[in-house]
Amino acid sequence: MKLGVFAVLFSEKSLHEALDYIKDSGLDTVEIGTGGYVGNAHCNPSELLADQAKFNAFYEAFQTRGIQISALSCHGNPLHPNKDIATEHHQVFQDTVRLASKLGIENVVTFSGCPGESDYSLHPVWITCPWPNDFSEVVDWQWREKVIPYWQEQNQFLKEYNVRVAVEPHPGFVVYNTETLLRLREECGDQIGANFDPSHYFWQGMDPVACIKALGKENALFHFHAKDTRIDQQNNPLNGVLDTKSYKDIANRSWVFRTVGYGHGEDTWREIISSLQTIGYEGAISIEHEDGLMSIEEGFTKAVEFLQNKLIKQGAKELWWA
């Protein structure tokens, strides 16, 4: 495994500045945003595919620094009921796959998407319980009419380009846990797997280690994000994990995203990394920063220190990258 970072953290920097900063931090791999909700500050796939000189310059920026790209990421909603949004996100996804193939990159990261409740919806609708029966009917319609047909087609497209899609389970989308990820893979094809982000599992009350092992049995874990979640011990017992308050309202939320090590301790993260090794995962540990209590630089630096230095020094070296 290699330690890396999701470079959208450094969208305010130029690509060269961001890569120099990442390299100086001791990392050898990066995940690059290509559009959708994460933006394309460092990589516009349609431009690079259309202009060989721009493609060559992009490629050389990584080669000259000895930095590997672990994934291209275009987190979006190609199933959005707004056709303009769906078309845009679908096009970005397919352009990202084409670019990944040209660069020799194995993984493209995105969301599964979420449709509306019918062909007349204006916004996505995510169902969280089976009753009243309308809810169960909506979920069945979403999967049967929208999700499965779309991803069956994309699975074939991915095969043509020899690229895998690492779908990131996330509440608000039809794939949000282990069961829904494995259903998508079973229904649509084995080019589909998971981008595993423990913070989303912590938030929902799942055990990341158990989920990693379940995905590993199906060879379905393709890429990994290093991000943590802190469960608030006063707000969560009162209100549970379903929380629509702003991420900025940290004092009143049931949970918040944190830098690794600031939601769960070393023992928990050792078990997570150990479970990755157990299933034979050899990809990147890609640091993602969404910590509202730390600046980008602080959160990134502390994540690198925690993952690369502190755990190794305390006896986990055999589980880590050289």
Automatic annotation (TrEMBL):
Residues 19-309 form the Xylose isomerase-like TIM barrel domain. GO terms for molecular function: isomerase activity. It comes from the Bacteria. InterPro entries: IolE/XylAMocC-like, Xyl_isomerase-like_sf, Xyl_isomerase-like_TIM-brl. Keywords: Isomerase. This is Sugar phosphate isomerase/epimerase. It comes from Metabacillus bambusae.
